[in-house]
Amino acid sequence: MSGAKKVAKRLQMDDESWRRHANPWSVWTRFAAIPFIIGSIWSREWIGWWALVPLALTGVWLWLNVKVFAPIEQPASWAAKGIYGERLWLQEKSLVSREHRAIQRLLIVVGLAGFALTAWGLFVLEIWPTVFGAVLTVLGQLWRIDRFGLLYDELKRAGRIQ
């Protein structure tokens, strides 16, 4: 089982959760949580253990996020198609071309590099690695969603999915 599939399982991502996560509000508010996570961790020097409060609240929001928005039954937006494509990539590997798998692996590396830079920047409280890492992470994830959307559109056009 892949790491992403394990995370989806831990988050109890059933069919309904995936449809709710495909709501563009879900996608964009998850991205909006990134500065709150960074700010919470960064603020540990100023507010000590109280920094865990906004971090925990953001964690609760990320958990609730896939439960509170209306489900999308027929993806039409860029974000919705991307999430539907992500689900196909995780659950229907046989439908995914070698090219899509290779590009996704590359983009995972980009995201992990960004995450590592962000973590390092937060550890040493240096602004440039933190900001550069966060930007790299977000750009990598946006590119992944875009590729997932292309995958969804390709499979839909080919009649391989409904």
UniProtKB/TrEMBL annotation:
Species for this entry: Saccharopolyspora elongata
Name of the protein in its database record: Uncharacterized protein
UniProtKB keywords: Membrane, Transmembrane, Transmembrane helix
Entry's transmembrane regions: 21-41, 47-64, 106-125
Keyword Transmembrane assigned: yes
Pfam families assigned to the protein according to its UniProt record, in alphabetical order: DUF6653
Domain of life per record: Bacteria
